[in-house]
Each structure stands twice: as structure tokens, then as C-alpha cells.
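Researcher: I'd like a structural prediction for the single chain below. Treat it as a standalone chain; there are no partners to consider.
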Amino acid sequence: MSTLDSLQRREVTHAPPVVRIRRRTAWRLIDVGELYRFRDLFRFLVIREIKVRYAQTAIGVGWAILQPLFSMLVFTVVFGRLARVDSDGVPYAIFSFVAVVPWMYFANALQDGVNSLIANANMIRKVYFPRMMMPLSAVVARLVDFAVAFSLLAVLLAYYGVVPNAGALMIPVLVVMMVTTAAGTALWLTAFAVQYRDVKHAMTFVIQILMYAAPVVYPASLVPEAYQTLYAINPMVGVIEGMRAGLLGTRDMPWQMLAIGATTSLMLATSGILYFRAKERRFADVA
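Model: Treating it as a single chain, here is the predicted structure.
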């Protein structure tokens, strides 16, 4: 082998990798392989969200207990004692707390997810990574608060002498449905919030409206039968009523509500991913 052939072979061997940037097609908007390659970054973002939330706070993770606990006390006084809202035969305090735990998770995850890209605008402009990881990490990080609040719920169930029934086995499914709903809604609103900052300012009002569109302070039985199907389109209706059915036995497991809500939740998640990835290329310019 000649010296020239040896040099050419060495150049080919040490040639730098070629990166080809192609325009995404509609069928490649969801790139699971890319998300898997950045899994370590996703883990870091989740841990960072948890640490930043409780950094330099006096009671730390105790806020995950105080927030739903004080909400329960206010709802019990206003709606349970003053307004005399029906609680399906169980003490109103535990009736409302079973709903407050998943609702607080949804509301906080939605708020954090919508603000995630705007709060990390500098990071988005400087380095490439799947932008979807920002809102999704905020949604996943809030599961820590949910776990802490759910532990307090278990203590309250024991205090009131309430024994969950077989429907409690559905709770993991309800949690998946709750997280999917929060993620899908957050992806939609985050994509809007980057371009239209009005979304960020409207979030408090939107979350308040959504709370009264779910059976947080009242039972779903108060909604007329003719509107039950339309009402169940909100996935959080099925989540809350399912938790009450499994933990409190206030009703049979609402299978129809769960089926309708699960369908809506999947549609929200799928369409949210597609819309987010379609708008992703503009985030660095407008964030």
C-alpha cells in the first residue's frame, strides 16, 4: 500500500460526523427517539424544578400540604357550612379534600408548564434540545406535591374512619389520566403563551373558571342528567368523581364519565404534541 493511499484512508477514518438537518414532515412531529436521547436532561429539569420551588423557603415541601389543606378549610366553611352544598352523605371536609388533591396538581402543573418556556428563554436561545421537555418536566415535577398531599389524604381517611372500596384500584389509572390531561393542556397553552403573553396573565382567571367546571366544591350529581355527557368531556370530572367513588364510596365508579374523559385526555395530549412541535421552530425568535 502506498503512502498516499495510507494518508487518504486515515483522513476518511477521522472524518468528522455529518449532521443533516431536514425539514420535519407531519408524520415525524413526534420523535420518541430524540426524547429518549435527551432523557438525562429531562431528569435534570425535573429535579431542578423541585429544588427551585422550595429553595430558601421556611417549611419547604410543607407547602404541598398547606395549600390543599387551607383550600379544604375555606371550601368547608363557605360551601359546606354556609351554602350547605350536598356532599353525598360524607363529611364535607373529606369530600372536598379528595377533589382538591387532584385539582391542585392539575392547576399547579398547568401554571408551571405554561410559564416554563418564557422563564427559560435564555436557555432556549443558546442550546438545542427538545423544547417539549420544558413544560413536561414542570408537569412531572408536580407529582411530588401530589404524592405528599395524597399521603395527607390517607391520614384524613383514617381519621374519619372511611375505608376505600375496590374502586380504589382504579387510582393509578386516574393518576395517568390526570397527568395526561395536564400535559396536553399545558402543551397547547405553552405554545400560545410564547407568542401571546396575554395567556400568561389570563392563567389565574382560566384556572378559576376551570375549577368551577369540575366537581371540586360540589358533587357531579347536581348537574342535570341531560348535561352529564357534555359535562364529562372535561377529563377532570371523571378523575375527581372516580377518586370519590373509589375512596369514599359516594357512588358507583363512573365508567361512562371515565371513558369520555379518557378520550378527551388522549385527544388533548395528541393534538397538544402536534401543535407544540409545529410551532417549536419559532420559539427561539419570540421567547
